[in-house]
């Protein structure tokens, strides 16, 4: 930065004001032709081992498609996707490229962008030590940009991504359509930037891992493009492992089983297991969840009263609540109910995205948590940072609201999964079977009550791939934090190092 705030230099490509797509009638204004709206700025990041110079290209990319039918025509604009592309200027044009996105559905990619991957990061603080306003940005010495170029992209209707004029956004609000849109953007970016010889990596968080797995399969199946690696941070690959009975058919006990170790970790974070380590508690909970617990639930009404009471007491001791409450729940503890119950005596609720967080409850008798303290407490710092950063440091301006969380994407369509579980584990497995060089990195937060680590462990261990591939091509790491484990400084540093190793092939 020349004065601490302005870019060293910048170039701009903005939308044309005229250039109508067709002749305008008398007295009518010509409709503007959609064009890219991009700003390119130059930057230097001072790292402990030297300077990293890079450009940031920020803005909306117009995507075009050939119209349906037999008549050939030039591609028609259908989407304007917002992305920030970071490219190191002195490290060659065959560096790896990481395409990153968050999930939701409906979340922008501000979280991975300013929390973990980008060259600048938000100063949010952590539970018990949150940074108060005014919020700020810090240099990110663990940025993935040290090892790969980075493209952070927002899904349709999130961030600044919108349909092209005259197009409808809801055609992209579904698993398959969203997958196809992201794959098309990646293909377009590689062509525009002449990066077809660069190793390609995908990185997703939360539903972004669902997206990453589906996009990887789309790239392989449709375009014959082989990803070098897929990073899955707080993954969900099979929704039947985490969605409870009120939304899925009764009789699916898998979520109750898979959430139990996460409940035990959250109980530990709030002092319910004095004198014991987190790993000791988690190991005990996982052993119970993998052996006794499924057998107990499978018995249903066949379980006698004495055994049911003993099971309730064992579960209660593990997850830090009363045995009567567990017994009334028929040994099946739903996560929103648990987060309202575990700190009820203290008059507080625990966080879903990160169970280490808590906040006072407005209703001491609430059956379910009313809000998520973790997103409530972390979100404002990210909102302030992204809006300031895009305009002041990256030079991008628009009159559109940057949608951190967009309700406009709902209802999200899973129409292709009628009468079966929503899952992309089969997509991920197919990529691994088709492309022998593709590797997978998986990051789990112990205190993540949105996508519990035990559910992911289970799905990964049952992928239809050779056992040797599971052991040699999938790396799994754990962090003492939640869904956004980078809110916890030691976990952020460790995860950044692990992702760097992954991209370097170590």
Automatic annotation (TrEMBL):
Q: Which UniProt keywords apply?
A: Carboxypeptidase, Hydrolase, Protease
One Pfam family linked to the record? Peptidase_S10
Its domain of life?
Bacteria
Q: What is this protein called?
A: Carboxypeptidase
Statement: the UniProt record of this protein carries the keyword Protease: yes
Segments for region (Disordered): 1-35
Q: Can you name one GO molecular function term for this protein?
A: serine-type carboxypeptidase activity
A GO biological process held by the record: proteolysis
Q: Which organism is it from?
A: Brachybacterium endophyticum
Stretches with biased composition (Low complexity):
10-29
